[in-house]
Design a protein that fits this description.
Length: 620
């Protein structure tokens, strides 16, 4: 099967003419790589439980973390500030919609001396899997840890691991993907043999001599990874079909993106993960950014590459690009302290500052298919006011329709909504099937211990605004004051594959010890309520000639171009969701095809985040 992928680079350059800075090029001659190691593990539930209180020096990553980030530190020490003085998109509009308390919130794997813990998590139909540096755990969806967990990361990945874990739930295959890397040696990952994350795994190792900070995604029939690799702009794609089958001959292809600007900070582009039901086809982005303070960069923009691979002929793989999309000005540099480039953000009661993760795209970028369009979302940290050392989060949504080019749909900069001098950073974003957007983040400052919050927005809200009020997940009670400024490195926000409405979030906070991690679930979407008002007959009309195909018409003076349409059965289960566009006559129209649905009574709901109108239909 031939699949096309888009690689997106968010390049931050001064706003101006959106013509490409680089003519499009095509790179061919893909190198084919085969596994250097492959084995099948025993069921992990039967292996010994990790001893979290007995870390050997080999398992303490503090030293290796500093060493492998040395190149980034040297760059940041000499990096200049952007000409941007005040972020032009910093949100000043009040957040008008209340957020709900978390549905569930509990501590994940907690280990001392993990600076940073690198928390990452994924959710399946029945389980939550969280990984941190060196250890991982499996919980049921009530927050109960599975017997025998947590485990050492060496079970199942094996080898001499170096951190930066990633866990993904492969929804179409109902499998689990987990990874760590061996610095300067190889990429190692494992895929569960069955849907049970506590069972056996297929383990693969692929040689890669220069690697760091690998970010994985699932798209179509490939697993994709990019990171702080050499040469700059290098990425790999793995034959997903063979890996899921446990085929030891599963190959990878590697290419380098043409026009990728080398030598800019961390060089860690991020593949975008396709989240939601249905196998992705066509294009899949990878996200990175450049700041106009960096050498050789003259305009803030997003940049797209197109990657083609045919797994029946992997040597024919190619990558084409770049195409640039302008972004608003920002400053991604926040100064360090006393020669420590990572000591950026204030904490209460101590002089020690913590890492804002500057010049890095926050994990994980996502892509969604809403039928009428595709959305791609990502975020990164910015300085709100030049020299203030106060962090905000620049978030971006790109869209494309009908297989066309990606275009900027909206962007904003989320800042501390209290108006104080606190910082928000380490953002993690996701969208539910209704198009509601959620963002979890860490908040710290002179008056706030590092704590976890979330915000969000509905698809009908004003563009560029996070309208959900800042909602606390867990309050911090401590500051890092141990001479190590590293913090978080990862956070992850995903949506539940069971209802496609519940969000699950993991990140670091500072509790009884500063290396605590948290797992929480919350919703933004509104549930169907018996208190909803019925629409007037003249405004909301549903007709049908055969009780299977229904024409839905809503005449409304709403200023929204799009409304949301949902169909629920009598048990409250949503069986259809779509977005409805207003036509030139001011009517929102949608044809409902209920073929294949059981006979009975259904509720049709049309509206936005503030108002819904409902009607009953009968399917025969």
């Amino acid at each position: 099967m031939k699949i096309k992928f888009y690689f997106l680079l968010a390049c931050c350059l001064c706003l101006g003419v959106s013509t490409p800075l680089n003519a499009q090029q095509v790179t061919t001659g893909a190198e084919i790589i085969t596994p250097s190691d492959f084995f099948i593990t025993a069921p992990l539930r039967d292996l010994p439980m990790a001893d979290l209180n007995n870390l050997s020096p080999k398992e303490t990553p503090r030293g290796t973390e500093s060493q492998r980030k040395a190149a980034l530190a040297e760059f940041l020490k000499g990096a200049g500030a952007s000409p941007t003085q005040v972020d032009p998109l910093a949100q000043t509009e009040p957040q008008t919609r209340a957020g709900d308390d978390p549905l569930l919130s509990f501590d994940g794997v907690n280990v001392s001396n993990l600076f940073p813990p690198d928390p990452t998590a994924a959710v399946g139909p029945n389980h939550i899997v969280q990984m941190t540096n060196r250890f991982w755990g499996v919980w049921d969806k009530e927050g109960n840890l599975e017997p025998g967990f947590p485990k050492n990361i060496n079970d199942p990945i094996g080898g001499s691991i170096s951190g930066d874990p990633i866990v993904l739930y492969d929804r179409e295959a109902d499998r689990w993907f987990i990874s760590q890397f061996q610095f300067g040696s190889s990429l190692r990952f494992a895929v569960s043999e069955t849907p049970d994350p506590t069972g056996s795994y297929f383990v693969y190792s692929f040689p890669l001599s220069s690697n760091d900070y690998p970010h994985y995604s699932i798209y179509g029939n490939s697993y994709i990874v990019a990171g702080n690799f050499s040469p700059s702009g290098r990425f790999l794609a793995f034959n997903r079909e063979k890996i899921l089958a446990g085929d030891p001959s599963a190959e990878a292809v590697t290419l380098t993106m043409p026009g990728f600007r080398p030598g800019t900070v961390f060089r860690a582009p991020q593949p975008v993960h396709s989240e939601g039901a249905g196998a992705a086809a066509g294009s899949a982005p990878i996200v990175w950014f450049h700041d106009d303070a960096w050498g050789g960069v003259s305009q803030d923009a997003a940049v797209v590459w197109e990657f083609d691979v045919d797994w029946n002929n992997p040597g024919s793989a190619s990558v084409t690009g770049p195409i640039e999309i302008p972004l608003a000005d920002f400053d991604s540099f926040i100064a360090g302290t006393g020669g420590d480039a990572f000591a950026n953000l204030a904490q209460p009661g101590v002089s020690q500052r913590i890492d804002a993760l500057v010049h890095v795209m926050n994990f994980q970028a996502h892509r969604y298919d809403f039928g009428t369009h595709e959305s791609m979302i990502f975020n990164f940290v910015v300085e709100i006011n030049n020299g203030s050392r106060q962090a905000g989060l620049r978030w971006v949504e790109l869209r494309r329709s009908g297989g066309g080019d990606w275009e900027l749909y909206q962007e904003g900069t989320y800042v501390d909504p209290t108006g104080n001098d606190e910082s928000v950073f380490m953002g993690a974003m996701s969208m539910d099937q209704e198009g509601n957007m959620a963002m979890g983040y860490i908040k710290t400052g002179p008056d706030t211990f590092p704590s976890l919050y979330y915000t969000g927005r509905a698809p009908g809200d004003d563009l560029g605004q996070m309208t959900i009020q800042e909602t606390l997940i867990v309050a911090g009670t401590n500051s890092i004051n141990q001479g190590n400024s590293r913090y978080g490195d990862y956070g992850q926000l995903v949506r539940d594959p069971v209802d496609d409405l519940t969000f699950w979030y993991t990140s670091q906070y500072s509790g009884s010890s500063p290396e605590r991690t948290r797992i929480a679930a919350f919703k933004i979407s509104e549930e169907l309520s018996v208190d909803e008002l019925q629409a007037a007959e003249t405004d909301f009309v549903i007709t049908s000639s055969d009780n299977r195909i229904f024409d839905v018409n809503l005449l409304s003076n709403s200023t929204n171009d799009m409304l949301r349409l949902s169909v629920y059965d009598v048990l409250g289960n949503r069986v259809i969701y779509s977005q409805v566009k207003k036509n030139s006559s001011g009517v929102y129209y949608q044809q409902l095809d209920m073929n294949g649905k059981a006979s009975g009574v259904y509720i049709v709901s049309v509206g936005n985040a503030k108002t819904k109108m409902t009607k009953q239909i009968i399917v025969r």
